[in-house]
Design a protein that fits this description.
mainly alpha
């Protein structure tokens, strides 16, 4: 009993009953909460237990804080270390297995991977057919790229917001995010469509081709907006099944419906229409589930229909849209610029198409299938590395949260060591995998080019783009850590310079041959990797301070 007594002079006059009352209080606190180590928590727990000033005054203490101070001196003696450890373990979040993360990564890149496989097996990319008229292919692909470009920024915004509010079970705001997403995309499409019509008027372009570009732009934009839910919720099976079914429908309609639809152009667009319809089925399914979902169904699970927790409601305060846009603007700008870094060289290859340079074509630009064949296939380097990066990085938030459950502030250097080790592992493995993929493409480039109907210039593009994509893969590893620590603004400035290198350098080098545009792409990739490496090495030194400041 003596060892439980406080040594403070302020409590020497306490009666035996008051001391016993304090010991019972300590046992009660430990019963409901292990590991209490500060006065504020003790005061809160006293209130939870129903203690009030009248009760503690009656038992010899002046107030709740006064009782808390007395209990704080000896409450550690009642802790059960084993029980405390178990309760901490219960707070830890299970980490998905490498197999699960690999499946998720495959699902995320499946659309691009399937497109490249289709290109390699059939010589037909999703955005072109060898038998289509050149001007039609140019208009169609131009609309696709424009749709991807104008929606990339908005998708960066709304996917992050959707995930944030869904994880909060704020279904009312989730539904508003969906409406705002479609409203934003609709406005962007309207502005872009008007811009294309004005450009057609000024440049005297055929309105039929402009109509094709607008249709392809609208289609790909709405598809991306509709699949934002599926990507956010990581419905991997539906992603793989949906896109696989779309690829099968494209091949089936285009290659097997020749008798029913003899015209190649009509048959090609019919196959794309069928594929779009197949993809829409999964999007409609998930939209319906979200619109019918209520917050209580997420929190309470299987409960009677009349049950509604007091603290849960779908009628939440309406967020300010302009504030959300302003906060997410750096992410939006960076996403658009990163996309531009990857694909600006392809658009430049249209301007320096051999037919235009030689004067045999009077068009301003023309789809360059020889450049696309090499550059598109080189994307395999990035895709292979991105799967590995997803497997390594996706559980980092969970691992850090599990670490800080029982981590003392004096041990924050463990966070630094963990992040530095994780970064080194990510960079080394990204280099090994991307370099291996690039080497395979580099060695077998001539055979691949012949198979796809390419030329020597296609081989050069494939090889240079593969080397450039090794640096892009390393750059992507850096981006993951920089974005994880929420340093987005440096990425925006970095991407502006990277796009400028491609645009200016490609415009200069393209005059001596469209294949030389890839040199500008390679220079931009080396620049991006170098600058991002300097940036990440600077911020990773005090990664724990940045992490705690931003997320904890």
């Amino acid at each position: 009993m003596a060892m439980l007594l406080s040594h403070s002079d302020n409590y020497k006059s306490l009666s035996r009953e008051s001391r016993i009352f304090a010991q019972k209080t300590a046992r009660s606190i430990v019963t409901i909460q292990q590991g209490v180590n500060n006065l504020a928590d003790i005061v809160v727990l006293l209130e939870v237990l129903g203690y009030n000033n009248e009760l503690v005054t009656k038992n010899g203490f002046q107030s709740l804080p006064d009782l808390a101070k007395y209990v704080y001196d000896f409450i550690d003696l009642y802790y059960n270390a084993e029980q405390d450890k178990k309760s901490m373990e219960l707070l830890a979040t299970p980490i998905p297995t490498p197999t699960q993360r690999l499946a998720e990564g495959l699902g995320m890149i499946f659309p691009w991977l399937g497109s490249l496989v289709l290109l390699f097996l059939t010589g037909v990319s999703l955005w072109m057919a060898l038998s289509l008229p050149k001007e039609l292919t140019t208009a169609f692909v131009g609309g696709v790229f424009l749709g991807l470009l104008i929606t990339e920024g908005s998708m960066q915004i709304f996917q992050k917001l959707f995930t944030f509010y869904y994880n909060q079970t704020n279904i009312g705001e989730v539904k508003r995010i969906l409406k705002r997403s479609y409203l934003t995309v609709s406005v962007l499409l309207l502005v872009a469509s008007l811009g294309l019509l004005v450009a057609a008027k000024l440049a005297d372009l055929p309105y039929q081709l402009v109509g094709v570009a607008i249709i392809s732009m609208v289609t790909v934009s709405l598809h991306r907006a509709s699949y934002m839910i599926i990507y956010s919720l990581k419905k991997i099976k539906h992603l793989i099944v949906g896109y696989a079914s779309a690829f099968v429908s494209i091949g089936t309609v285009y290659f097997l419906a020749e008798g029913a639809i003899p015209d190649n152009t009509v048959r090609y667009f019919a196959s794309l229409g069928v594929a779009f319809s197949v993809l829409t089925v999964f999007a409609v399914f998930h939209h319906r589930k979200i619109l019918e979902k209520k917050s209580v169904s997420i929190i309470a699970g299987n409960v009677p229909h009349f049950y509604n927790p007091v603290s849960t409601s779908d009628k939440t305060l309406r967020s300010r849209f302009h504030v959300q846009i302003w906060e997410m603007l750096p992410h939006s700008v960076f996403g658009t610029l990163y996309f531009s870094t990857l694909f600006t060289d392809r658009l430049l290859s249209w301007i320096y198409h051999p037919d235009i340079v030689s004067g045999t074509s009077d068009r301003l630009f023309e789809f360059n299938s020889m450049y696309h064949t090499g550059a598109d296939l080189a994307l395999l380097v990035i895709l292979s590395a991105s799967m590995l990066q997803y497997v390594l990085m996706s559980p980092i938030y969970i691992r850090l949260n599990n670490m800080i459950i029982d981590l003392k502030i004096s041990e924050s250097d463990k966070i630094d060591r963990f992040l530095q080790k994780q970064y080194a592992q990510l960079v080394i493995l990204s280099l090994v995998l991307s370099a291996t993929t690039a080497t395979v493409l580099f060695v077998f480039a001539p055979q691949i080019a012949v198979h796809l109907g390419g030329t020597e210039k296609t081989v050069m593009v494939l090889r240079l783009a593969s080397i450039g994509n090794v640096f892009i893969s390393m750059h992507a590893a850096n981006l993951m850590f920089i974005a994880f620590l929420n340093k987005i603004k440096p990425l925006v400035y970095m991407s502006i310079v990277a796009v400028s290198i491609i645009a200016v350098g490609g415009a200069i080098l393209g005059k001596s041959g469209y294949e030389n545009i890839t040199i500008a792409y390679l220079a931009s990739a080396v620049f991006s990797f170098t600058v991002s490496t300097v940036c990440v090495r600077k911020i990773i030194r005090n990664a724990s301070s940045t992490y705690f400041a931003k997320y904890v």
